[in-house]
C-alpha cells in the first residue's frame, strides 16, 4: 500500500463504520475540521480493506463492532501490511472497552468514544474527533519523516550524560525499594506494556499515568497484569506500594500523587483542575514522586502529544532521580518527550525496546538475577 508523502492538500481520511448515521456524522465532522477531508466510507471490514487499497488514505477511522466483529482483524491486517494512523471510534462499556484496549495494544493511534447522549455528548464527541485527528496527523508526519531519513534504525539510542546508578544498598537502608514512575499519552498503551514487561523481573513498585478516560484504566491495568505477571491494579486512595506491585492512575477527575509515610510509598487520589491539560496529570504524579522518593526514583516519560510530564520530570531530576525519555524515532507522537528534552529534564533518550534494560542497569539489577 505505502503511505503517501506529505503534500499541501488536505489529510485524507477513510471512515469505516457499519452505521450509516455514524458514517454521515463522521464525514460532517471530519470535513468541518480544517486540513482534513473524508475520501470514502465503508460499512464492513472487507469493504474497508478494499477502500484502503483503492483510495490510499492518510488516516483511517475504524469502528470495532463491524459485522462479524472483524474490526480488530482489519486493524491487525492494516498495521501488519503497511502501518498508517488508525483512530478507533468505540462504543463505551462492556466488551467495547476490552476491544478498544486490545486495539491500542495492536498499534491504533488513539480512540474516540461514541456519543451516548449522557456522559458522552455529541458536542464532546465532535471536539474529541478534531483533537484525535490532529494527533493522528502528527503521528503520520513522524512516520513519514522516519521513513525518509532511516530504515530500520529505530533502535538507535541518543545518550545524555547521567549520574551513577542508584544504590540498592542505600534504598534497603532507607526501608524502601526504588520506585519507577511512568507517564504516557498517545501511543502509550503498547509502550507502557513493553517497558513494564521488560521490568517485571525487578519486582519494583511502579506507578503509571496513562491519559485515558474513566472506565478504561481498570481494563488497562488488568491487561498489564496478564502481560507482565505483576500485581497491577487501578490505584485506590491509600494503596501502599509493595515489591512486584504496579498501579495505574484511574481516569476521571482525580490526580494520583505518591506520598512517603513511615518508610512506605502510598497512593493518594485528589480531585483537582486540569494540569498541563489533563486529569490525572503526569506532571502532578512526577512532582509528588520527586518529593516522596527523591533520588530513589526513576522517571520515564513515553510517547504523547503536548507537554504533560516535562515539568514534573525536571523536578524529579533536580531531586536526584534518574530520568529517561523515549527516543523520538520510536514515539508515536514525540510531544511530551521532546518537551522534556528541551527544558533539560532528561538524563538520556532511549529507544522503547531498550528502556527496560537501561532502567535495570540504573538500579543495579540484571535479568540473570530474576527471582521466582
Strand content: 15-25%
Low-confidence stretches: 1-6, 149-164, 166-175, 368-372
CATH architecture of the largest domain: 3-Layer(aba) Sandwich
- Identify the CATH class of the largest domain: Alpha Beta
Number of helices: 12
Broad structural category: alpha/beta
Largest sheet: 7 strands, parallel
Q: State the strand order across the main sheet.
A: 8-9-7-6-12-13-14
Distance between the termini: 46 Å
Q: Return the CATH topology of the largest domain.
A: Rossmann fold
* Helix percentage: 25-40%
Shape: globular
Order of helices and strands: EHEHEHEHEHHEHEHEEEEHEHEHEH
Strand elements, count: 14
Give the averaged pLDDT, no decimals.
87
Output the CATH homologous superfamily of the largest domain: Methylesterase CheB, C-terminal domain
Number of domains: 2
Question: If you compute it from the alpha carbons, what radius of gyration comes out, rounded to the nearest whole angstrom?
Answer: 21 Å
Short summary:
With 372 residues, the protein is α/β, with parallel strands linked by helices.
Description:
By secondary structure, this protein is an alpha/beta fold. It has 2 domains: 139 residues, Response regulator (Rossmann fold, 3-Layer(aba) Sandwich); 202 residues, Methylesterase CheB, C-terminal domain (Rossmann fold). It contains 12 helices and 14 strands. The strands form 3 sheets. It has a 7-stranded parallel β-sheet, with helices on both faces. The longest helix has 28 residues. It is globular and about 60 Å long. The chain starts with 10 loop residues before the first strand and ends in a 10-residue tail after the last helix. The N terminus and C terminus are likely disordered.
